Amino acid sequence: MTDRIESYIDQNRNRFIDELKEWMRFPSVSAQRDHDKDTRACAGWLVDHLKNLGFKASLVDIGGQPIVRASKKGMSQRCVMIYGHYDVQPEDPIDQWQTPPFEPTIRDGILYGRGATDDKGQVFTHVKAVESLLKTEGQLPCEVVFLLEGEEESGGDALGRYVTQVKDELRPDAIVISDTTMYDEKTPALTYGLRGIIAFEFIVKGPGADVHSGAYGGAISNPAMTVAQILAQCVSPEGKVLIPHFYDDVAPLEKWESDMFRKLAFNEKALMEELNVPGLHGEGGFSTLERLWARPTFEVNGIFGGYMGEGPKTVLPAWAGAKVSMRLVPNQNPEKIAGLFEAFINSIKPDTVKVTVKAYDGAFPSVVPIVGPSVEAATRAVTRAFGKAPVFTREGGSIPVVSTFKKVLGLDTILIGFGQNDDNAHSPNEKFSLEDYQRGILTSAHLLQEMAR
Amino acid sequence: MTDRIESYIDQNRNRFIDELKEWMRFPSVSAQRDHDKDTRACAGWLVDHLKNLGFKASLVDIGGQPIVRASKKGMSQRCVMIYGHYDVQPEDPIDQWQTPPFEPTIRDGILYGRGATDDKGQVFTHVKAVESLLKTEGQLPCEVVFLLEGEEESGGDALGRYVTQVKDELRPDAIVISDTTMYDEKTPALTYGLRGIIAFEFIVKGPGADVHSGAYGGAISNPAMTVAQILAQCVSPEGKVLIPHFYDDVAPLEKWESDMFRKLAFNEKALMEELNVPGLHGEGGFSTLERLWARPTFEVNGIFGGYMGEGPKTVLPAWAGAKVSMRLVPNQNPEKIAGLFEAFINSIKPDTVKVTVKAYDGAFPSVVPIVGPSVEAATRAVTRAFGKAPVFTREGGSIPVVSTFKKVLGLDTILIGFGQNDDNAHSPNEKFSLEDYQRGILTSAHLLQEMAR
Asked: Who among A218, A275, A299 is closest to B217 (CB)?
């Protein structure tokens, strides 16, 4: 049985790649309204594709980007729901892409393009897995439901609202998400922890217009300097977040976790080389892996104000601002952190400027158990496909829906990633190796079989 | 005699305005290479204009933007050299102009457009003054030399090199510059002090590309945060510059200056209203006028890095940077300050990022005497035109050529400004009131007469 599936995946390798490329060509950038048509077309393409595989599939419109819902019964009564997202991050900075983001290109066995790993490529492993099962076995081992959203990259709430609406008809036995990564190229992983997030933009307003820095410099606050001073008060040079009560709810790592992190023997030198930085940096007293997986952060995502063109321009800017985001860990609450941040900004802002803060949607952090029947099924599937058992990891990123599923459906999610850390998710030259793609398809096929038991 | 000149200026008022508008239409933005043709055309237009008034006039090419040199003998042997600049600041932010920057427009007796006050309008007061003298008196009271550069706004060195080359043939008895302002709308001023300047851009480089703030946040330095932390270490929240030895050479105000500043009764409330700021701010222990005129500053002119578009984007930026400038006062030396700043940045920069600093050309601060024959002549001229004596002021801006003239020609400059502080030099909606323009022409005519004595 396994041999038949493996052969099918091998024999259809090129078509599977071509189909993924075709789907990746849709610039489904959900954050940009002028891509709404592309985003919908991207979802529609997948609905048609799943219909051709015999799924009952449709677009769900509930405000915001449409949701793809598709299902097909299987041999067993058990139901596995696969979540993913078909929307992608904006492409910029566009000039740093070696090949255009929406013209998927293969170089040296690696597929480059926006969405390659996050999350179109990983979603498509499951789509091609169900195809492979259907074409070789004639039917699925269990019921499979696809629930794919188009707002993951833009913080929309359509999926959350939908799941709440239909929670009584959606009664999966297990939920699977492939939107994380392997531990490294040779080591498969099941991810049991994700950070949450809360993001803001704040703007500091000074004079009504940019003014002459000679004529007015020394008389009034400089908004760009105020932005810098506010940010510098948020994080110490040693990487500690200085917002009062920020760490109050942070759950310390349990001993088995610290021990496990240590055993993973994280390669700091390789990370420095990958990122081309002269050194690593972060909160004192924690290892790099602990800082990435289990400690909250405060990051500046963008900073702007005044003259950004060529050469000097001696103005005192009318305004300046920054986009910041904080990654959160259990048991931090994004709403509570939002309140702490806004109160802190208000407490430190000088009264010689006007400061406005805007919060974007947040997401809760998650941890899921590393024991139980679904985890055991996933472990068996990975072991069959990779020839080795997965390690258990946490990740620094956020998948908001995991806490939604827990809250609304009462189910923990299996997080099984097929890509790599350096796949440039959210960055130029996003990629997904063809080997990871093919192995992901095989793993997913095994996973559905194991979960059907 | 005075009556004849005044009448001539009155009668030709509209033509004088039209000619200035015609000259302002050239987008002579010297900082932008793609405006080089416009900048040269702007200079050429003035050469032709001065030739038509009987001047010997030509463009001097010495590398960089051309210099306008023009001269005409007069009744007395004395020679007055008028310096000014025909280049202008970039127009941006373009969307904040009520009417296009290079389509001069009159609203409520005020002429709006780039260069209106800085410095085309003020240069043109002298051009129309010599015309008025020539048309009413038949000849100039003394020799008049125009020396007008096209690199004042972009820190070029062509004029300095040229003055050094021709210093033996350029032997003026007095130098006049109109590139400052009146004290207020009703109070004419002779300016005796200017700040110097030194400007920099520094760039902080982190990872090779913008990376996912979840996947990497906590492991490496955030370049935008590093920029903020560097800036926050340069200036205290109380407005004190923290670069070691920055204040070492600052000449304290003399008692007569402090007394005079106090007597000028600076209107802080009016400044707050003009700039629409909730409060004034600057170095503790000094009055607003002292901070503006006689204390050095550190300003952020621009700050940039990461995602600046709409909505959130959770990246950790590859790099970020800032443009900063420091206004300097006697006896600070821009080169020495540049060295202090670069050494300071190098001493505080974290070793987990790469930091590069680029210095732009600097300018020395200046003070000129408030006594002597030229100052007395200027005082008489202002008193005749305004019906009141000028006050003595300093200014926060920089006119680098003043220290060049002192060093190369051994002459102090008379700084007599006809515009206002709120004329939006370097800002959107730059302006020059038609009343100031006309009174400037009359004052210049009187000045040449008084200086001929």
From this structure: A299
